[in-house]
Amino acid sequence: MPGGRLTQQERQQIALGLADGLAYAEIARRLDRPTSTVTREVMRNGGPTGYRSDLAHRATGHRARRKQAVPRDPRAPVTAHGRDAEAVRAYEEVFTTVLIQSGTPRMMARVMACLCLTDSGSLTAAELAQHLQVSPASVSKAIAFLDGQGLVRRERDERRRERYVVDDDIWYRSMMASARATLHIVETARQGVGVLGSGTPAGDRLEGIARFLEFVSESTARAAEQARAILSTRSEGATAADATAPEATTSGTDASEAST
Question: How far is residue 78 from each of residues 20, 55, 70, 75, 157, measured CA to CA in Å?
Fold first, then answer.
C-alpha cells in the first residue's frame, strides 16, 4: 500500500471517481489507499460536490508550508504522554472529518476537535488560533456557534483570560439544547395550524410535523437525563471502589497476619 501524501494524479482519480458517483471506499480501493485517506482528502477540500483536484493539490502544499513555518501550540496533545505526534495529528483530522459529516460547519468542527483532544479540555482563543493557524475572528465565530449548541462553556482563568472548556457534560447540554430547539419548531408548527386551519391539507401536515417532533424532543430530553444519571452513578461507584480497595486489601492482609 503506498504511503505518504496523495499525488496530483491520485487527486485527479479521486475527482473522476466522485464525478462517476463512486463511494469513498471504492475510490480508495482503486488507489490502494485507506478509505479514511480519501474521506479526509475530500472533506477538507470542498466535499463531494465541490472537490477539485488542482485546488486540493495547491491547498495541501500551502498547508504543508504553513506547518513548517509556524510551530503548533505546545498545549496541543501532540507530544504529551509519549504520544506519536503524527498519529495524533492524523486522528485530529479524522475526528474533524466525522464532525463535519455529521453536519457541523468546518471551522466549528476544527475547534471542537481541538478542544476535545487537548488533555486540559480548555484553551484560550489565542491558543486555538495558534494551533489551528486561523484568525482570532474565525475562532470567535466558531465558539459562538458551539456555545449556542451547548458544546462548550466559557470561564475565566487566574489571569482573567476567557477560556473555552469541554467537559463530561458537553453532550448532555448539547442534547438538551437540541431538544429545546426542536420543541420551538413544534410550537411554531402548531401556530401554523391555527393560521392555515385544522383539517386542511396544509394544517394537517403541520400538525403531523408537530406531533412527530414533539415526541422526538421529549424522548431526546428523557434519554439525556437518564444517561446522565446512570453514567454519573457508575462513575461515582467506580471512584468509591478505587478509594476503598487499598483499605480492603490492607485489612485482609492484617487479618491474615493476625491469624498466622
Answer: 38, 28, 15, 8, 23
